[in-house]
Amino acid sequence: MTIDPAALSEEMRLFLTERHLATLTLRRADGRPHVTPVGFTYDEGECLARVITWEDSWKTRHVRREPHMPVAISSVDGGRWATLYGTATVSTKPESVAAAVERYASRYRQPKDRNDRTVIEIAVTEILGRG
Prior knowledge:
Elements: E1 2-3, H1 10-15, E2 22-27, E3 33-38, E4 41-43, E5 48-54, H2 58-65, E6 69-77, E7 80-91, H3 94-107, E8 117-130
Antiparallel strand pairs: 1-8, 2-3, 2-6, 4-5, 5-8, 6-7, 7-8
């Protein structure tokens, strides 16, 4: 079922705030998919998903290699699931990183402190799923 990223149902909104891990799929330089487990948060008002990571991670390097790379984040819990599609960029801006860390702490737990923190920001254009 296709869902408007800016107008979630209550069920999907709940699913995207409950503690569920996900996978982030990026494209490697040779075209193969790179799939990695992540925690993520979703901001419905901005249609923006955020994944916190660090400067030397594969995720950061892949997205830096191809800014606005098409990506997907997928999460499943029994019959409930969501896949968010969009384009990714990397930010190191202190305010962007702080917002991402705060949202992550609210959904999951307080992450370890890192001085090389980055955030992958995904401009979500489509959501498929069932909350």
